[in-house]
Amino acid sequence: MLDNNALHEKVKSLLYSLTGITLAENKDIMIANRLHKLKRDTKYSGDIDELLVAIENGTHTMEFINSFTTNKTHFFREDFHFTDLKDRVLPEFAKSGQNIKMYCSASSTGEEPYSMAMTVLEAQEELNKKINASILATDIDTNVLQYAANGVYRYSKSSKEFPDWIKPQKYFKKRVNKTLASEEILIKVKPELQKMVKYQVNNLNDTSYPFEKNHFDVVFCRNVLIYFSAEDQNKILRRLFSHLKIGGTLYLGHSENPHDLINYVKRIGQNIFIKTKELH
Ligand SMILES: C[S@@+](CC[C@H](N)C(=O)[O-])C[C@H]1O[C@@H](n2cnc3c(N)ncnc32)[C@H](O)[C@@H]1O
Description:
With 280 residues, the chain is α/β, with parallel strands linked by helices. The protein has 10 helices and 10 strands. It has a 7-stranded mixed β-sheet, sandwiched between helices. Strands 3-5-4 form a 3-stranded antiparallel β-sheet.
């Protein structure tokens, strides 16, 4: 039987090979908790060493990945990106009548792609012009993708999640649920948002992505690169960049770095980049 140290090293290397996620040194308690939960949830009868061998051989691999991702997100996180989308990017598409293709590359439970969709509908109303938009939202975690596609969220009136220019009641239907704390209700995204967003699994660490080159006008890659080594971050960014059109916009999370892309973009705001040329 492996000692704790060896067990945790095995988890780290397995997680790295499956997802590219690099766990920091001080994650022992987190690893132990998640392993125990995984064993409980999968009802695995052997010991944890054996469970890891099974995962390596393809059994419970998806559950393993799902249990080690960090899915923290909220609606309109870093809302200045959505303001930029509404005030700078979307008016161009309203004017030209061209479809805008957007990619949300680590969508977690859906708050980010639905915020993109709400932004489109707001811009459309402000400009009084139809905007044809499609949003592809991907994640490696199949549980969060299912949650996102279902589109049901907890909402509290006192929450400051939505910016002033969004009235949640326009985009969500209220659902009654007696088991929640009194100030919270369940809300479900309306069909007009849901039909704009398509969910799909994609591992950002794969060597290629199943999309055409120069396909997207907008790419959101926020608060996910932080889980990778600097070298892998750079590789992911280079791949994502090849799917972004010249003139398209890349939004990165507040603490994320554009690495090699820096000479191929124009920075126009807080981690807002316009692609100016191809990177070879
Ligand atoms: C902290 S959440 C960020 C969600 C959202 N982008 C935001 O800014 O609020 C990070 C997400 O990245 C996903 N993720 C981690 N590794 C991934 C990989 N290799 N490929 C795709 N998604 C990954 C996780 O499953 C998780 O849902």
